[in-house]
Amino acid sequence: MIKILAIESSCDETAASVVEDGCTVLSNVINSQANLHKKYGGVVPEVASRLHIEAIDGVVKQALIDASCTIDDIDAVAVTYAPGLVGSLLVGLSYAKAYAFATGKPLIGVHHIEGHICANYLMGLTPPFMCLVVSGGHSHIIYVEDYRKYKVLGKTRDDAAGEAYDKVARVVGLSYPGGPSIDKAAKLGLPCIPITKPKFHDETLDFSFSGIKTAIINYHHNMEQKGEEINVNDLCASFQSTVVDILTTNTFKAAEMTGVKKVAIAGGVASNSALRESFEKEAKKRGMEFVCPSPIYCTDNAAMIGAAAYH
């Protein structure tokens, strides 16, 4: 059995985990800074870096304690090396390099997005499968042909889905992070506000969320200027319904094109209830298998880094 101590610090979560054989999570410690960044409406990179420095040693030690391990039980150290906030990444990477050097353990660098994809291995999923990766900075349709063998079939041409969620939430007066806030509000509203979906001249699986975001913002501003009452719940429901429909349609189109029968989602936006329900419904209709990580493994965590590092 191979035990990997994994570290993740790409944005505003300081996380450490011990993962066995790439699929069994022995510990998963996450120190989130979300409440501290909330008053700014987004992550402040310099603040995030300093908070990572304060938290990382304690988080790593707690991960070993929770896993009932000592460093002698660990076979390798894994860490996120990119992409992310440079200062935040530097804290985790420097700590992991020093830790591996001091203990004589191998060091494994993991790409953050590959980590999100590999979170599905914690759920027992095996390749091949189609994976939609949706987060604050990324929206990709990735064909996972085998372990560590990926093919990008579609991606956003402008804003990522999570980025659009955050910006819309800020405009309509909801708290950061925007994804959970809009998801909650959408459940209380109706998708009754028409929003034009982007259309491309070429056959593509790419996304575009900038226009949808702008349409919502303009609608909100126009209503304010006219002094008319704005139903924020309906606005959120309309926005979310449009985004989810596009994500679902393109991903299952990709699955049909390749003939793959398993579909998965990953990334922070993968914890969105409407997206999960839409994928589950579509997969059932098409006779496909749908797998998604538990919400705790959708947002940034180190267990997914450990799963990726094993392979």
What are its keywords?
2 domains, 5-stranded mixed beta sheet, alpha/beta, 10 strands, 311 residues, 21% strand, Nucleotidyltransferase, domain 5
Sum this structure up briefly:
This protein has helices at 34-37, 45-66, 86-103, 112-118, 161-172, 178-186, 210-226, 232-258, 273-286, 295-298, 303-310; strands at residues 3-8, 13-20, 24-32, 76-82, 107-111, 129-134, 139-146, 149-155, 262-266, 289-291. The protein is of the alpha/beta class.
Structure description:
By secondary structure, the protein is an alpha/beta fold. It folds into 2 domains: 3-120 and 299-310, ATPase, nucleotide binding domain (Nucleotidyltransferase, domain 5, 2-Layer Sandwich), CATH 3.30.420; 126-295, Nucleotidyltransferase, domain 5, CATH 3.30.420. Helix content is 46%, strand content 21%. The chain is built from 11 helices and 10 strands. The chain has a 5-stranded mixed sheet, with helices on both faces. Strands 8-7-6-9-10 form a 5-stranded mixed sheet, sandwiched between helices. The longest helix is centred in the C-terminal third of the chain and has 27 residues, at 232-258. The protein is globular, with a radius of gyration of 20 Å. The chain starts with a strand and ends with a helix. The mean pLDDT is 95.
